[in-house]
Write a structure and sequence with these properties.
The chain is of the alpha+beta class. About 20% of the residues lie in helices and about 20% in strands. The protein binds guanosine-5'-monophosphate and zinc ion.
Length: about 110
């Protein structure tokens, strides 16, 4: 999608601090970290949010969770939180599916 910030990051049109990339997904550090470690994992394909996951595009979600397990293992993160905000009320500000991975501090529950 031409006017999507994260599609532009995937295309290299906007710089990012890359952590990992493969054919299906891209992982990069959040520009405004909310924890000592805070990165995002996104599908390369434009999917607006987790509410737009279907039987046609859901394989990438399982793949992203495999990548999250691999990256957190490699980074030595034994405890971390994975978050995906859906819709403005839940705090979504970029409408391209992404999973936040946060680690390195105590986390509260329920989330704010
Ligand atoms: P959301 O608010 O949609 O759940 O998450 C979007 C995230 O993208 C936010 O945590 C925000 O800091 C991050 N973000 C927004 N613009 C950029 C950018 O240009 N580069 C990077 N690396 N992260 C961004
Ligand atoms: Zn996009």
């Amino acid at each position: 999608m031409s006017d999507c910030l994260f599609c532009k990051i995937v295309a290299g049109e906007i710089p990012s601090k890359k952590l990992y990339e493969d054919d299906l997904c891209y992982a990069f550090y959040d520009i405004d970290p909310q924890a000592p470690t805070h990165f995002l994992v996104i599908p390369k394909q434009h999917i607006p949010s987790a509410a737009a996951v279907t039987s046609e595009n859901s394989a990438v979600v399982g793949h992203i969770f495999e990548v999250i397990a691999k990256l957190t293992r490699e980074l030595g993160l034994e405890s971390f939180r994975v978050v995906s905000n859906i819709g403005e009320q839940a705090g979504q500000s970029v409408f391209h599916l992404h999973f936040h991975v946060l680690a390195g501090r105590d986390m509260t529950w329920p989330p704010g």
